[in-house]
Amino acid sequence: MTRKKKRKSRNNKISNLTNTILSILKKERNKSFNYKQIASKLGVNDASSRNQIIKKLQQLKAKQEIEEVERGKFKAIVTTEYHTGILDLSAKGNGYIICDEFEEDIFVASNNLNKALDGDEVEFYAYRRKHRGKQEGEITNIIKRAKSEYVGTIQIQEKKNFAFVVPDSVKMYKDIFVPINKTKKAEDGDKVLVSLTDWPEKADSPYGKVLEVLGKPGEHSTEIHSILAEYGLPHEFPHEVEAYANKLDTSITEEEIAKRRDMRKDLTFTIDPKDAKDFDDALSFTVLENGLYEIGIHIADVSHYLEPGTVLDDEAYERATSIYLVDRVVPMLPEILSNGACSLRPHEEKYTFSAVFQMNDKCEIKNEWFGRTVTYSDARFAYEEAQAVIESKTNNIPQEVSLTGKAYQTDQAIADAILKMDELAKKMRSQRMRSGAISFDKVEVKFNLDEEANPVGVFFKTSKDANKLIEEFMLLANRKVSEFIGKQNPKKTFVYRVHDEPDEAKLAQLQTVVGRFGHKLNFKDRNSVASSLNKLLSDVVGKKEQNLVDTLTIRTMSKAEYTTQNIGHYGLAFDYYSHFTSPIRRYPDVMAHRLLQEYLDGGKSANEEIYEEKCKHSSNMEYLATKAERDSIKYMQIRFMQDHQDEEFLGVISGVTDWGIYVEIISNKCEGMVSVRDMKDDTYDFDQSHYAMVGRKTGTMYQLGDEVIVKVKNTDLVKKHLDFYMVGKPTLED
User: Fold this and answer.
1) Are residues 503 and 570 in the same domain?
2) Which one, 45, 73, 554, 632, has the greatest CB density within 10 A?
3) Which EC number(s) are documented for this chain (predicted)?
């Protein structure tokens, strides 16, 4: 029997070879490559693969996509214009590049990321082709990594002498390889902070080393420290910063008082949250002989203690803001300053920086003065105590709101001052609203915690007249300080808090959603938009859709930020606005104090470039702190829901996607997801135009804003996920 001729096995065709070769040549477009170097980069060395590369190089040369610069050596013909932008990764692994040169974001498939990570500044080129209507691109170079540190769970491979860290962030699409000698003795399953050290060309995963072992996943301190570490935020002060702060002379001296306006005899008081320790603002009130009211807004003089070029100032600048987590405050300044020397505590003399206004009953400013002062606070009130004065129009503080736990009578002069300032604040507020300001009174979720920081209850914090009184006078100081400098000629560098107009496309989306609840917006002009947004926000108060509408309206707004380039503040309807009133917890306020004093002393305009860089840093740190604060609330909500596994809750559908329905529980504002896979009573399809899930057989529709009954399916503290089962729609009995 003749033996069958053995067929020569054909080696596999190299997939996507054209794009791969072009990508290699374009990535290092100043170098030339021969077929061997390309084969090496691809990790192939068999004859079939080499022949495919040789053939493809000739084809690309014939198409004039590459050129042969010397025999057998090729370079990309760069006709493509390269752009730079910021990569925004989705949880699915694809990304979008945000670039000012393009109206829409550029889609980047996961195989064209070329090791770029979320938030990285990247160089890319845009293809002519589109992906689902979006222009598509490929990343060619990483200009700047957004971050190099990640929080994750370590998996030790003891027999293999290495470990992998699985990042918590869904946007980090690769596990991080860690040699066993760089694990910092972490145990398998520990939560760690890992730093990226390298990402070799041929390695599938980046390499890293453990910087800190955070603890066991799910434990309270581990999870809170993980939130801070994820955003690169501190949780304690370096020893040298604490030591420097502790050595500061915080005494009030006659020599320093002589340099300041002495306002110790003016009636002065503070109104703050009942649990506050850092009182950075106080108000003084005097009725002048001419009938005008002299109102002083006195702010802790942090810049007196915080000298540029010191370790203390460097640390404050790096932090840029205090961080308010659900169970703690991570302060910008060490406690000796934040809760001590700079805190305007009652019956203590303090150095302050003041904005003093003389105004009439119509809130017309007849005189203004800015400068350094020394003040003495006669009394401290919680917001609830001041609210009691406003509501009762007496000087009686009832037991249930009293800071001392006992009913008492405050000084009649202070009660009169509170009542008059409340009256003036209401007038200033209505003037702002008429000018086109937008009233955001979003409900804040707060937790009652026991001694072990376990959530034992939820309550909602709303803004009442006492809060609004303080808010209006702080807004007045912030506006007038920035106006005083902003209107000077020649122009002087200053730190403004700006807020651009809302995006029209986002407003149109908002109209689609709120139209579901019978609300209508008017886009005719700037004032119409503002007044219809205010009408919307007041119409939804107390309704099931309030939190959803409040959240969506805030999302249509541009993000407020710090800059030296003033464009005004849309949300407040101010042409000039700055942050001046909270230097204990915000570094931009410290910068505002320094610049104001410099200009009051006749100094020249500060370097704009340096201050713009500081503004960008401050805006970025504020963004990270906000994300950490939200994560800590989400974490605590999930902890709270762990104890309510078998209960049914009434909720409102807050989002609908092709993978599930997001529901926010009305009684505690906890948001979770019902996976479409768990909706077994029918096969549901996502109807994007109606923001709904629709059952194929039954026609049952779950739509954005609908009330539904849900039950807790799963609580994941580590991933901060809350999963629900859909019980159904409420009946009349519910």
Assistant:
1) yes
2) 632
3) 3.1.13.1
